[in-house]
Structure formats: structure tokens, C-alpha cells
Design a protein that fits this description.
By secondary structure, the protein is of the alpha/beta class. The chain folds into three domains: 110 residues, 4-hydroxy-3-methylbut-2-enyl diphosphate reductase, catalytic domain (Cobalt-precorrin-4 Transmethylase, domain 1, 3-Layer(aba) Sandwich); 107 residues, Rossmann fold; 82 residues, Cobalt-precorrin-4 Transmethylase, domain 1 (3-Layer(aba) Sandwich). The chain has eleven helices and twelve strands. The strands form three sheets. It has a five-stranded parallel sheet with strand order 10-9-11-1-12, sandwiched between helices. The chain has a four-stranded parallel sheet with strand order 3-2-4-5. The chain has a three-stranded parallel sheet with strand order 7-6-8. It is flat. The two termini are 37 Å apart. The mean pLDDT is 96. It binds iron/sulfur cluster (SF4). The site of iron/sulfur cluster has 15 residues, from helix 1, helix 4 and helix 8.
Length: 336
């Protein structure tokens, strides 16, 4: 008997939509276009998106990742610096202007929309409640749109219980874009019960990509022996997908960055695998994982389509005259 005939059958339920969202696609495009237009180095403040494969790919093209603008050497002050898709506090572009730097802001338009909603609450005299995770760059960026003391971060039900506003009738909330839809609904319910006059933002803060990826996992997870989410440990939306899979009925759910992280010995007896990828995980890694399973199992892939996404966010005008080759496009779309 050869190796092929001994392989166990495995059905992979592959979620669609999965992986790159329009905001991630745009952010990567901005770095690639800037490298083509201005040449290396192009500085990028913080990981452009939370994915090591993407970051290393851009480093190979000449991007230099920094955490603070002060890391840009004076002789490279004319090189562009790109702000990541997660958004930055207002102090960062201000700092860039003071240092006479040329910056390109790759903040996702849907994060910018949350910034505007938070500023609107503030303008209307409301104290802002930001539902999100402490320390996440998006939360730091949103907080940094507002005056000192104008916002309070709400992470848990305990935070809701402890919060004592100066004026309970003058509150407004926004949320991080990549939260769990279910957990956020729970926190909002608790907040609304305590503060019935709290005002909602004019538009939903959790973005379409987060909602669609969670919905696809929720529909696909029941009964799966294992659910794999491709993504980085610091990717908020990827980590939420792991939780959604477990809650929706997957027997086990794991976050992996590459096929090499899959615990093959522990999963030898599975017959159904759910598979999805966070908004910052490139499709090439999903392919790598499917191929790794094909090498060990007799694989059937079933596509589980729950939504069609047509969102496309254009890059800033200054980069629109640069053309991308087919190879550039493959990288930007996560295929190379
Ligand atoms: S996950 Fe949502 S908010 Fe974040 S970059 Fe993608 S589309 Fe924008």
C-alpha cells in the first residue's frame, strides 16, 4: 500500500470572505507605490498591518519599519514615512510636520470614520466611551484624536460597572473596528442599561470586513474537529475569529501564522477542518496550509461563501500616477 492510499479523508470548509480587507490592501499598496515612486528607503511607522510575512516582504523591497519618527536619520528626512492602517494619534502627523517629514497616511478610511465620530461626540459636548482593547494601536490612535481626559476606554463589563461619568446625560460611544460583534453587543447592552441617554455614533464602528469574517466562521464552525485561523498573535480581528469559531461549536480552534506552526501530531484523527484568515493574513499562507494538509490527508475543499465583498479604497492622489506590475499586484493582493 503506498502513502496515498493510507491518507485519511479530510474535508476543509474554507470560509469566504477571508483574509485581506480593502483597508489592508490599500495600506500595502501605499508602501509599494511609495517605493516605486520615491525609491528606498520608505519608512513605515509601526507594522503597516499585523502580519510578519507582509512586513518581511516589504522590508525586502526596501521598506524600513520604525516605531517612532525620531528613528528616521536626518540624512533620510526627504524619504517618505507611511503611517499604518490602524491610524495614529493627532500628535504623530503634527510631529512629522515639525520634523519637516513627508508623510503618507495609510490609516484605513473606516478607522478614520471612527475618528470623526469620536470627534463629533466631543464637539457636541459628550464624554466619549471607546470600547476596545488597551494598548492596541487603533485604540491609541482613536484616543489620540481627542483632548486629554475626553474619553474613557471600556474593555470589560467591570469597566462598565466602575465608570462614573461627570454627566450621565452627555455620553457617546464608538468602538474599535475589529472587535467581536457578540462581545461588543454585550458591553453595549450593559452600558445602555446604566446610561440610557448614551448616544450611538452615526455609523457602525465595527467594520464590514470584521463582521463578514466573523459571520463566515460562525456558520462554518459547528461540528468542525479543528478550526484554523491564519493570522498574527497581535492581530485583533484574527484573535476574535479564533474565539468565534470555538463559541460556534468547533471542537478546537487555533491561530497559526504559517503551516509550520500546525501541531500535526495532535490532529492526526480529524476529519473536518474549518479554515479562515484574519484581515491582515495573505492568501498565499492559506494556500501553503491547504497544501500542507494535502500532503498528509486526502483533502476535499468545500468553499463556504457567506458574503461577497466589493469594497475598494483608492490610494491618495499623489500615488495614483504610479503603475503596479502584475507581480506587484500579486504581492498587494496577498498572492505572492
Ligand atoms: S479590518 Fe476593517 S477597519 Fe481594519 S483595515 Fe480592514 S477594513 Fe479597515
Amino acid at each position: 500500500m503506498d502513502a496515498t492510499t493510507t491518507r485519511m479523508p479530510l474535508t476543509i470548509r474554507l470560509c469566504q470572505p477571508r483574509g485581506f480587507c480593502a483597508g489592508v490592501d490599500r495600506a500595502i499598496q501605499i508602501v509599494v507605490l511609495a517605493l516605486k515612486k520615491y525609491g528606498a528607503p520608505v519608512y513605515v511607522r509601526h507594522e503597516i498591518v499585523h502580519n510578519r510575512y507582509v512586513v518581511e516582504g516589504l522590508q525586502n523591497l526596501g521598506a524600513v519599519f520604525i516605531e517612532e519618527l525620531s528613528e528616521i536619520p536626518p540624512e533620510h528626512r526627504a524619504s517618505p514615512v507611511v503611517f499604518s492602517a490602524h491610524g495614529v494619534p493627532k500628535s504623530v502627523p503634527q510631529d512629522a510636520r515639525e520634523r519637516d517629514l513627508f508623510y503618507l497616511d495609510a490609516t484605513c478610511p473606516l478607522v478614520s470614520k471612527v475618528h470623526k465620530q469620536a470627534m463629533r461626540h466631543q464637539r457636541l459636548g459628550r464624554h466619549v466611551l471607546l470600547i476596545g482593547h488597551a494598548g492596541h494601536p487603533e485604540v491609541i490612535g482613536t484616543m489620540g484624536q481627542l483632548a486629554e481626559g475626553a474619553a474613557t476606554l471600556i474593555e470589560t463589563e467591570a469597566d462598565v460597572a466602575e465608570f462614573e461619568p461627570a454627566d450621565p446625560s452627555a455620553l457617546g460611544f464608538v468602538t474599535q473596528t475589529t472587535l467581536s460583534v457578540e462581545d461588543t453587543a454585550g458591553l453595549l447592552k450593559a452600558l445602555q442599561e446604566r446610561f440610557p441617554e448614551m448616544q450611538a455614533p452615526a455609523a457602525e464602528s465595527i467594520c464590514y470586513a470584521t463582521t463578514n469574517r466573523q459571520e463566515a466562521v460562525k456558520e462554518t464552525a459547528p461540528g468542525a474537529d479543528l478550526f484554523l485561523i491564519v493570522g498574527a498573535p497581535n492581530s485583533s480581528n484574527s484573535r476574535r475569529l479564533v474565539e468565534v469559531a470555538e463559541r460556534a461549536g468547533a471542537k478546537m480552534s487555533l491561530l497559526v501564522q504559517r503551516a509550520s506552526e500546525i501541531p500535526w501530531d495532535e490532529i492526526a484523527n480529524i476529519s473536518t477542518l474549518g479554515l479562515s484568515a484574519g484581515a491582515s493574513a495573505p492568501e498565499i499562507i492559506v494556500d501553503e496550509i491547504i497544501n500542507a494538509f494535502r500532503a498528509r490527508f486526502d483533502v476535499t475543499v468545500e468553499l463556504a461563501v457567506t458574503a461577497t465583498e466589493t469594497e475598494d479604497f483608492p490610494v491618495m492622489r499623489v500615488l495614483r500616477d504610479v503603475e503596479l506590475t502584475a507581480a506587484d499586484m500579486a504581492f498587494v493582493n496577498g498572492m505572492a
